[in-house]
Amino acid sequence: MDIQHLVDRLEDLIDEGRHLFGTKYTMMDEERALEIIDQMRISIPEEIEKAARTIQQRDRVLAEANEEAARIVQQARQHSEDLIDEQEMVKQAKVRAEFVVEQAKIEAQKITQEADEYVLVQLSQLEQRFAQTLDEIRNGIQLMQYQEPVAVEVEPEMQPVHSPASEGSGDPISFDRPAQAPMGSRI
């Protein structure tokens, strides 16, 4: 599965989450979020495999270019040996062979550089997507860890979600943010 699609699904999950009134925090389905993250972990090797295929293709093109250059050089040598008596033609063949070899080297270097740039761009984009996703996940985890309990009426088919971090975590109470009144109460 495409990593970009998974990032979009995670973003949709966050958008679908229940926004806490008066805050920038959102509650979301932890199981669905973890499922998407697991799929992302599976997808990472696919992205790396794409980059590896690009590198293999670059290596294949380089090998073909080197073979072509060697073939051209060999042809130029054979041609120069055949025309050894004619000095001017030998000289021109050598110049032409060197020119072709130089052109092949330049083309091979260009292909290598383009392939390296492509791989770097792809890996940089992947790194940015992962960094963004990781920030979103950390924000979600932080939200879930420091969230004050809110009284909510639970419908019969809905199960309450228990956070292991809130039970006996021993974390000190934070006075950095204002307290929130339970939903339905009046201040």
Structure at a glance:
67% of the residues lie in helices and 2% in strands. By secondary structure, the protein is mostly helical. The protein has a two-stranded antiparallel ribbon.
The fraction of residues assigned to DSSP E strands is under 5%
For the biggest sheet, the summary is: 2 strands, antiparallel
**What is the averaged pLDDT score?**
78
The topology string of helices and strands comes to: HEEHH
Oligomer: single chain
- Tell me the number of structural domains: 1
Helical coverage, percent range: 55-70%
User: Given the structure, what is the number of helices?
Assistant: 3
Class of secondary structure makeup: mainly alpha
Number of strands: 2
Radius of gyration: 31 Å
The coarse overall form would be: rod-shaped
Uncertain stretches of 5 or more adjacent residues:
165-169
Strand order of the largest sheet: 1-2
User: Kindly, what is the distance between the CA atoms of the first and last residues, rounded to a whole number of angstroms?
Assistant: 49 Å
